[in-house]
Design a protein that fits this description.
Helices cover 43% and strands 18% of the residues. It has 300 residues and is of the alpha/beta class. Helix 9 crosses helix 10. The two termini are 36 Å apart. The relative contact order is 0.15.
Amino acid sequence: MPGLIQRSGSNSVALETTLLLHGVPSSEGPSLAKELANICREHGAEPCFIGVVNGRPVIGLDDAELTSLFAANHVDKANTANLGVLMHRGKHAATTVSTTMELAAAGAVRFFATGGLGGVHANYGAEWDVSTDLAAFTRFPVAVITSGVKSILDVQATREALETFGIPVVGFRTEQFPAFYLRDGGTDVDARFDSVQDLAAFVIGELARTRRGIVIANPIPESDEIPRDEWDRWLTAARREAEAAGVRGRAVTPFLLGRLHALSEGRTLRANLALIRSNTALAAQLASQLSPHAGPPGTR
């Protein structure tokens, strides 16, 4: 990849920059980056923030590069469709799930911690709207630790799409496929794993076998889950507001997320932070199995 800067190791955990630059208030991004980096190190792995700086894709942003992104007046979101254009034009860019997977795969980083996946929209605000996240799993051999699909989407349709694409969906200590703020999204996973060592061994073998991605479903901690009746009430209200305002297409998701944050009085953001911490910890535990001192996955 032209201009690629790579600073990843065998026990690196890929971390996206869209969360830091667009997913939390701007004042909280730097402290969240430090917290996630510390979580990785506490579990024996190395943090590997991924982004684009002045058109150069970086696998393992250093402190100076992260600071430049946080200080920029504007940072684009890079998906697999516009990444090349942003690189060509020398732009700063924050990586979404799909581009973090693309760059992680280029740097042989096997584990990536995120919050929730994009997926199939519930035919709301657009006739056909499917996230590039799903297609990325067919192209890039990376295991993505996630609390399922974002709860504003069609969870069942997203799960069916992953099956159609031949993407294994495994649960860590769960049989249910979660939906971000909800531990049970109403559908199941292909298999349950209860051991970090066993899961790491499966992932390494499966990535090599298929050269496709893997979804590792890790539900939000029970203490941070949002009760379903409250979530349904907030989402219904937010969708009505979006319809009344004439919001359509790509504008629907950020509008809904903003309104949900307001309607929940910040509880959705707090839940989001709780699940990304949990997913980062699990990703780091899995990546630590690949440490030069750990031996082959499953041996300790």
